[in-house]
C-alpha cells in the first residue's frame, strides 16, 4: 500500500469535485508557503517490496482543451526520499518543499486546466 499525506493541519482545505463526480478533500497552499507531508509505503504482511528509490515530485501543469492528454509542465521540484533497496515493513518518509513559488493560481474551466500536484 502506498499513501501520501499533506500536512493539512497547517493549511486550509477545500472540497473538490473530480471528473468522475466524486468529491475529495484537497489541501490549499499559496505561493511561498512550505508544502510538508509524508509518503508511507506499507508492504503486504510477510512480503517484501523491492524499490528503485523513493522520490516525490511537485508538478505544475497546464492542459489545453484542444490538446487533451498532453500536459505542459511549467514547474517541477523533486525530493529524493530513499535509495534503492528492499522494504519488509511499513516505512514513512517525511518531505518538505520550502517556500514553493507558484506563479499561477489553479484553474479548471472548459478550455484549460492549470493544476499543481504531488
UniProtKB/TrEMBL annotation:
Superkingdom of the organism of origin: Eukaryota
Membrane-crossing residue ranges in chain numbering: none
GO biological process, one term: intracellular protein transport
InterPro entries: Arrestin-like_C, Vps26-related
Recorded family membership: Belongs to the VPS26 family.
Protein name in the entry: Vacuolar protein sorting-associated protein 26B
